[in-house]
């Protein structure tokens, strides 16, 4: 289930990444993606289940 969600999200958001790359450039798109990934990792480390 986790693998299929990862692949599905990648394919679903590819057009968005392409549009962003055309509009603002690959460096800014990569920076935004890294910031989102960092934020997600940070939130998942703070809100752990016990």
Automatic annotation (TrEMBL):
Top-rank lineage group of the source organism: Eukaryota
Lineage of the organism: Eukaryota, Metazoa, Ecdysozoa, Arthropoda, Hexapoda
Name under which the protein is recorded: Major facilitator superfamily (MFS) profile domain-containing protein
Organism this protein belongs to: Bracon brevicornis
Transmembrane segments: 28-47
Keywords, ordered alphabetically: Membrane, Transmembrane, Transmembrane helix
